Prior knowledge:
Layout: H1 2-7, H2 10-22, H3 26-54, H4 58-66, H5 73-104, H6 111-116, H7 118-138, H8 140-167, H9 172-180, H10 189-203, H11 209-216, H12 223-251, H13 262-272, H14 277-309, H15 315-335, H16 341-345, E1 347-348, E2 351-352, H17 354-381, H18 384-392, E3 401-402, E4 405-406, H19 407-430, H20 437-454
Antiparallel strand pairs: 1-2, 3-4
Helix pairs in contact: 2-10, 2-12, 3-4, 3-10, 3-11, 3-12, 3-17, 3-18, 3-19, 4-5, 5-7, 5-14, 5-15, 5-17, 7-8, 7-14, 7-15, 8-12, 8-14, 9-12, 10-17, 10-19, 12-13, 13-14, 14-15, 17-19, 19-20
Amino acid sequence: MAAAGSAIGLGNIWRFPYLTGENGGAAFVFVYILCVVFIGIPVMWNELALGRYTQKNPIGAIIAVRGKTPWVIIGILSFIVCFLVLGYYSVIAGWTIGYIFTSLFKVQMNFASFTANLAYMIPLYALFIFLTIWIVQCGIEKGIERWTKILMPILFFLCIVVCIRSVTLPNAMAGVRYYLVPDFAKITPQVVLAAVGQAFFSLSVGWGLMIVYGSYMSKQQSIVSGGVSVAVADTTVALLGGFMVFPAVFAFGKSPAGGPTLTFEVLPQVFEMMPGGSIVGAGFFLLLMLAALTSSISMLEVPVSYYVDEKKWSRKYASWIVGIMAFIVGIPSALSCGASQWLSSVEFVGQKGFMNIMDQFFGTLSLVLIALLICLFTGWRCNIHDFVDEMAIGAPGFKQKRLIFSLAQMWMFFTRVLCPTVLTVLLLSQIGFKINPVHVAIVLFLLLAILHFVFPAKRKNQA
């Protein structure tokens, strides 16, 4: 439940709908589901296995397996990404706190005016960071686990209630068709990158978060079934997020490509049309804030676990120091939603606004890079059978052949061949290399496949 809480948050209900709207609707949803199944779940298993095998944080895990080699950059990048994303993610989470009160008291608030008002933005942002720090400094069982076990089922129930109301609005079926009937001509390398980035962002893959939670797992738990359960729960809530938003978008005559503000502009109108809408709306944004909280505590946990494990800081001291620093780093993102003209309009590599730039680099590209490096590390630099054995603990059928291959053999192929191929091509196409993605993917896939079958990973007693 803690891992599911880490995965389920603003990425599902805020980020997924607006990225779907910006990237072709159902075509993006189709690619996203493929990314979750064929890339997200294998990489999640990878991270959980690495965490439980070493019982360490991301930096400590790499050092425990290969020593202080250049591969430790994986852990360092995880640390940096969690720290920086926590800053701007908490700004958005602060919006949900504001909407609790605007919904409850039926305050008509223009979204652009709301986010540009520092009298609202900074206090709400600070309050959310404070709540994150308070829970993390309480520890795993009394803080993270206790809250997520209560909050996740309630959020799931409220999502279903809002979906039912949204799809029963006039003209809602136009939104359902946009959301479910794909136009495959809209699938481009940019759409695929956005889908992979969203899968990683939403599943908490590529952050090092699952390495940390893997280190907390007991040997009696199954990494295989646990990872699938997290992915199913996370994807279900993401799909529900789309059903909440797009029928209402078309019912109210808005553009599905409305960008990051889409959820906050559409859902309040849905609540207004429900009996007791102010209470339902306030309750929904409260639960959305709490869902964001279960994700933000995971982001803070990664750097905190490093300082607790490696530097022997107290959990309370590490939580407050890292949390306050993340708050300071996130202030430019808070100013980039209208309060500062320059931060709101600055453009870099096709992204406009400081927060959008941060999200593109650290919420998408960096996650893909970290996931690629983890696949190369466990698949080619380490003895991958160590991690297969770790995943087989609690999952006795993992190594058993079904028809031709066992699930373990398929996972090794995905980790060593398929995932590195897809992730490498995506990175090359996005950092400026003028390549034919299909040609490069075919060549790289065949090369890695030949190496995988001609030089298979051997067990230590076979080496």
